[in-house]
Write a structure and sequence with these properties.
Layout: H1 2-10, E1 13-22, E2 34-38, H2 50-54, H3 56-63, E3 65-74, E4 81-83, H4 89-96, E5 99-108, H5 116-120, E6 122-123, E7 128-135, H6 144-154, H7 158-169, H8 172-184, H9 188-199, H10 204-216, H11 220-238, H12 246-256, E8 262-265, E9 268-272, E10 277-281, H13 282-288, H14 290-300, E11 308-319, E12 324-335, E13 341-347, E14 354-357, E15 372-378, E16 384-388, H15 394-397, E17 410-416, E18 428-434, E19 439-445, E20 449-451, E21 456-459, E22 473-476, E23 486-492, E24 495-500, H16 506-517, E25 532-534
Parallel strand pairs: 3-7, 21-25
Antiparallel strand pairs: 1-2, 1-5, 3-5, 4-10, 6-7, 8-9, 9-10, 11-12, 11-24, 12-13, 13-14, 14-15, 15-16, 16-17, 17-18, 18-19, 19-22, 20-21, 22-23, 23-24
Length: about 525
């Protein structure tokens, strides 16, 4: 009995009443208001109440209580469906319907100051607090007692809270329930800590669940993180990582063993939890991830109407045996005004394919890297180059979820005129996909003027090029030769300026620069007459 009284004193939830309301169903089947659960009361004996046993302590406790109303909205816009061996059709229909559940209970006043959302919704005059949150009963079967556990943890000290969070992360189901409860109260900092603990376990099912929870609560950071991790997992499933340390390989093997629990069956993703199966349409996930894809496309595929002023730095590999610089070459694209790295490229051999990534990568430099943006494929002679996006070939795409990957598309083509003797500057044209107008546009480089006195070709680069070079050029539309849309100039042996605007996007402009920097089999004899001087 003493233990029960002590538990009552320390409990943050003193009493509760739960009401349940179903929306969109026949009220004869599901009443609008129906009591579901009553607060459990301790066994205090036949004649004495709990307040009498607690005496003055109970009265003081009640003076510090705040009425809290929790409104739980069940949202199933993704159309998730959980099936078991005993599932009946009417139960599935009921679970797929949106409904709301209301909890009314009392908490200690100290809980109000534990988080911003409580303070913002607290009515000091009425001494009441109302919180409206979202769950998905198909995804996580969240109960009132899961929410109550979080409220109790919030009233504890930070060390205790973190200890319980870490403890819960060791059990997948408990960790996901706690995350859903934390997300209900919009506890973003705590959600992020728990999500990171869950993700480092390298469990595909848990990552899928976190992705769905991120979509439910519109947590953009979590959505992006899970999206990138799932892409990595599935890319590893079809291509063994290269140049990675042993623990990375072991992690990849561990992940590959889990794919039988997360299956792709046509248009459905099927997650097997052992006791039940969760189904979700890939089309729904594709729509839910549209904002994330638009964000990524805005950076790399959607061109700007204003000029982007950038610099490209080339780093060659040094061979100590030959005492010279050799391949592979590494390229970094940086923005001028703040030095931010926008993209990174890698070329393994003098006439090899060029790979482009969204950030500097040291391992797994292949098209199966999660940061892969696209590639430049040259022909044998090095006079024609095709630019591809980060989509996958159709043969690989059939093995992967369609909401995570798309089929590879050509977004540009660069064609050089042959210039075997090198008596003139390089001339080339390009066809690029305009992602704003959704049209294919043809561009060409400006032919410089020949100066007979200096016996060289000249072109005005407006201070953006410092050295005379065959790699100095400007791109225009043939119908509008006065509007420079891309300008490329050499400033040092391994440094080049790159300025571009619409219709060029980042990948296309970077690709044209990379191709111009590299050597060609035909037209590589750049004699003095073929060099474009700056004026």
């Amino acid at each position: 009995m003493e233990q029960e009284l002590e538990a009552y004193k320390t409990s943050r939830v003193v009493s509760s009443t739960i009401r349940y309301q179903e929306e969109g169903l026949n009220n004869n089947e599901f009443p609008v208001s129906k009591p579901l659960v009553k607060a459990k009361r301790h066994n205090t004996g036949p004649n004495k109440s709990l307040s009498e046993l607690l005496g003055k302590t109970a009265q003081e406790t009640r003076e510090n209580l705040v009425k809290m109303k929790l409104t739980v909205l069940n949202n199933n816009e993704l159309g998730l469906m959980r099936l078991t061996e005993t599932t009946e059709q009417n139960n599935v229909t009921r679970e797929l319907t949106s409904y709301r559940t209301e909890y009314e209970h009392e908490v200690e006043e100290s809980v109000i100051s534990s988080h911003r959302i409580f303070e913002e919704n607290y009515d000091e005059e009425q001494r009441s607090l109302e919180i409206v949150g979202v769950i998905n009963s198909q995804l996580i079967d969240l109960t009132f007692y899961d929410l109550q556990e979080v409220l109790t943890l919030l009233a504890s000290d930070r060390a205790t809270f973190l200890k319980e969070v870490k403890k819960s992360s060791e059990n997948k189901n408990k960790a996901l329930k706690m995350y859903a409860a934390l997300a209900f109260f919009e506890l973003k900092e705590q959600c992020e800590s728990l999500a990171n603990m869950i993700l480092i376990t390298n469990n595909i099912k848990s990552t899928f669940y976190l992705l769905l929870l991120g979509i439910l609560h519109n947590d953009k950071a979590l959505i992006k993180k899970c999206y990138m991790i799932l892409r990595r997992y599935y890319l590893w499933s079809i291509d063994e990582p290269e140049d990675v340390e042993e623990y990375e390989i072991m992690k990849a093997l561990k992940i590959s063993q889990q794919f039988h629990d997360v299956m792709i069956d046509g248009e459905m993703v099927i997650i097997n939890d052992g006791h039940s199966i969760l189904q979700v349409e890939q089309r729904s996930l594709y729509q839910a991830l549209r904002e994330l894809r638009n964000e990524l496309n805005k950076t790399y595929l959607i061109p700007n109407q204003q000029y982007d002023l950038c610099r490209i730095v080339r780093k060659k590999t040094f061979d100590p045996m030959e005492d010279e610089e050799v391949y592979p070459h590494h390229f970094t694209l940086r923005r001028d005004h703040d030095g931010r790295e926008l993209a990174y490229a890698f070329r393994e051999s003098i006439y090899g394919t060029i790979l482009i990534f969204s950030k500097r990568v040291e391992k797994n430099l292949s098209t199966f890297n999660e940061y892969y943006l696209g590639k430049i494929q040259p022909n044998y002679w090095g006079t024609e180059f095709v630019i591809y996006d980060n989509g996958l070939e159709a043969s690989n795409l059939s093995k992967l979820p369609s909401f995570l990957f798309t089929e590879r598309k050509q977004i540009g083509r660069i064609i050089y005129e042959t210039n075997v003797m090198g008596q003139q500057p390089r001339f080339f044209s390009c066809e690029i996909q305009d992602f704003l107008d959704n049209k294919l546009k043809t561009m060409k480089n400006v032919r410089p003027d020949y100066n007979p006195k200096k016996e060289c070709y000249q072109l005005n680069f407006y201070g953006r090029a410092r050295l005379a070079s065959a790699r100095n050029f400007q791109m225009v539309i043939p119908d509008d030769p006065d509007s420079i849309l891309l300008m490329h100039g050499k400033n040092a042996t391994n440094e080049f300026a790159l300025d571009y605007r619409h219709p060029f996007n980042l990948i296309q402009a970077f690709s044209i620069s990379l191709v111009s920097i590299g050597k060609k089999i035909l037209g590589v004899l750049s004699m003095h007459n073929g060099v474009c001087l700056i004026i």
